[in-house]
Specification:
Elements (H helix, E strand, L loop, with lengths): L1 H28 L3 H18 L1 E6 L10 E4 L6 H8 L4 E6 L8 H8 L2 E3 L4 H14 L5 E5 L16 H9 L3 E7 L1 H4 L11 E7 L13 H29 L1
Parallel strand pairs: 1-7, 2-5, 2-6, 3-4, 3-5
Antiparallel strand pairs: 6-7
Helix pairs in contact: 1-2, 1-4, 2-3, 5-6, 6-8
Amino acid sequence: MIGRILRTAIGLPVITLGVLVAATVIGISGDGPFADRVLRAWCRLVLFCAGARVVAEVVPLDPGKSYVFVSNHTSNMDVPAIVPSAPSSVRFVAKNQLRKIPLFGWGAERMGHVFIDRRDPHGAAKAISARLEKGLGGVGLFFFAEGTRSTTDEMLPFKKGAAVAALTSGLDCVPIGVAGARNVLRPKGFPLFGPGTIAVVFGQPIPIAGHELEDRDRLVAEQRAAVEQCVKRARELLQAASGRS
């Protein structure tokens, strides 16, 4: 416990400074490859400060295509683990409260991330549609489909936003499974870093062909089933990593 407290006491100020620097640089530079490199560098800094090691399994994707990425959500360490492992650049659909964080919200908006009010489904849909209308240019649109962090091994019900975004844009869906992040940083309560391994698995894309907007519940079910398989595989990677250590 003392080790976790010391790591957190040292790591959090470093991460906070990193947020301010990264958000400022991204805000000035705007959307583009340089902003992507800065974001990935900040994520690696967070992982280093937390003492987290990432093992990833990634399927090859068409570099010329955009995708809707759909993941489970277990901890605030999910994002730092996913971003550097992702086979393409991603833009997150996140809760509106994050926009209010000084510099962070400005930098994130400049980079093209989307903020939504979960209490206003119509407004959220408009914000996502507006982002899609601007074009993604090969980057992916990322959703934590549960909407919030799950505190147990059971996934929460999936929201429909990722399915609707995929159906209205015609983009295939890429499922993501994360395991182990909850051991590095608890999903709720006071944050304390605990060194550990995080496994991230990117699954095979779910083709959008043959799906209609009126049939979105079927796509939601397919997304959930695919994410569950990725989570299962991520847990296998964790177990294998534990056996080697």
